[in-house]
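Thread: quick sanity check before group meeting

JM: Hey all, I'm pulling together slides for Thursday and realized we never actually wrote out the predicted structure for the chain we discussed last week. Dropping the sequence here so it's in one place. If anyone has concerns about the input, flag it before I start.
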Amino acid sequence: MPMINLLPWREELRQKRKKDFLLAALGAVLMGAALTFGTKFYFQQQVSYQEARNNLLRNEITELDAKIADIRELESRKARMIARMEIIEELQTSRPEAVHLMDEAVEILPEGTHLTALRQQGARIEIAGITQSSTRVATLMRNVNDSSWLKDETLQGGGIQWRGSGPSAEGEFTLFANQIRMNDDEEGQR
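JM (edit): ok, ran it. Output follows.
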């Protein structure tokens, strides 16, 4: 017996459902692909935006590092200039000290005593000379002690080294003292 389909609408319905399913599946795949590409595009935009911000920050940091290096160089120059100014100021204030020292050397030197050397290293003064008697060296030390420009006198070594004998004997001596700086004197008066 031949088969006759009396209900062709079921086949048509099955075909329509199959077609609708394929369209829905294709739509879901397209929607998923669009969503994937959209999400990927969004995050790529965010990454490139952040990279642009990072590059801007790197450039700013590089500029600031250059400015910091310039500031450090300027601070170094400033420190050197201040040191030079202090040296110049110290030289300016100590300029009259040499004159005072020479004047004081003339005033403290007793008769019968002659200087052979007068050396200064910083505030330390070395006075070397020849004397006719030890009393004159004691007078010299007393004069240094009473001086307004010298202090802390000390006689080197064993004192006076005598050459010769009798009335023509000469004694060599070396006396150390500290010069009172004008700044020390001013600070002491405050």
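AS: nice. The beta strands are 113-121, 124-131, 150-155, 161-163, 170-179. The helical segments are 8-108, 134-146, 182-189.
JM: adding both to the slides.
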